[in-house]
Structure prediction request, 221 residues.
Amino acid sequence: MSGGDAKKLVRSPSGLRMVPEHRAARSPFGLDEPPWVPDKECPRCMQCDTKFDFITRKHHCRRCGKCFCDKCCSKKVPLPRMCFVDPVRQCAECALVSQKETEFYDKQLKVLMNGATFFVTLGTSDKSELMVCRLSNNQRYLVLDGDSHYEIEIIQISTVQILTEGFTPGGGNTRAVGMILQYKVPGSEEVMQMKFTAGEDFSCNKKLSAAWLAAMHKVSK
Prediction:
């Protein structure tokens, strides 16, 4: 799996990007660059309707590809889903989305790649196995390591159900204590199920496990 993680630096009209050498190794969270609206098709800003001329120049949003004036497309924001090395120009609407995604990349994905420990039960078995669960470096696989070893491709996951406890009718706080994961087996329509449970004997890891489950919940969205 690690052999296909090599990356290369490429230049596009939008800026420098650090992308996987092989398309098959792309992150499932990635986005393709959008086609730019041709200059001849946008004589006016697509946000405020200001007419473009020698003074009012047009700019393309790197996320949606539409044409805007400088006022409506002035922000330069990181866009990790398109693998840009530096922040790129985006319209106000796209910038808000990208800012939220940057937090996801900076926090949740790092938590998932660092991993956490759970008791994992496969299917309807009554036996569980202590395993370290983490997201692979290329973000394509959920890797489980214990006496057994599993690699589940993220795009094959169909359902993520977070298990919680501590809810009260008065609105008390809940905490994530486990997860039920359903995924398809590549090459067939068979759906497998795994149950993840945070171990009660590992109190020092409860916070880490809860953070990992919360991050997995965001991934599923």
